[in-house]
């Protein structure tokens, strides 16, 4: 099993609808580390680190629309090399 980190930017109606909290819950269930945070442009940035298959499952969940209250228009992803190792999946402000 290989470990990877992916950074994603989720665009649409994703702020003020519990998106970061739902993403955190989903990531914890998948055993991932990283964070979710709101960006100034209205998007949400998600960094997810863990087993390749689990990270791919979270990205698929994001692309499928995340929580019911959100509307996801697009998700951009790229591999990520974090400057440090995350110990949990947090919410940043």
Automatic annotation (TrEMBL):
The active site is at residues 20, 38. Its EC number is 3.6.1.7. The keyword Transmembrane does not apply. Residues 5-93 form the Acylphosphatase-like domain. InterPro entries: Acylphosphatase, Acylphosphatase-like_dom, Acylphosphatase-like_dom_sf, Acylphosphatase_bac, Acylphosphatase_CS. Keywords: Hydrolase. The keyword Nucleotide-binding does not apply. It comes from the Bacteria. GO terms for molecular function: acylphosphatase activity. It catalyses: an acyl phosphate + H2O = a carboxylate + phosphate + H(+). PANTHER family: ACYLPHOSPHATASE. Belongs to the acylphosphatase family. This is Acylphosphatase.
């Amino acid at each position: 099993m290989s470990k990877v980190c992916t950074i994603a930017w989720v665009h649409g109606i994703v702020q003020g609808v519990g998106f970061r909290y739902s993403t955190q819950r989903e990531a914890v269930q998948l055993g991932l580390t990283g964070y979710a945070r709101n960006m100034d442009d209205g998007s949400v940035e998600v960094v997810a680190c863990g087993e390749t298959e689990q990270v791919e499952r979270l990205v698929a969940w994001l692309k499928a629309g995340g929580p019911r209250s959100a509307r996801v228009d697009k998700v951009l992803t790229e591999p990520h090399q974090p400057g440090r190792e995350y110990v949990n999946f947090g919410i940043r402000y």
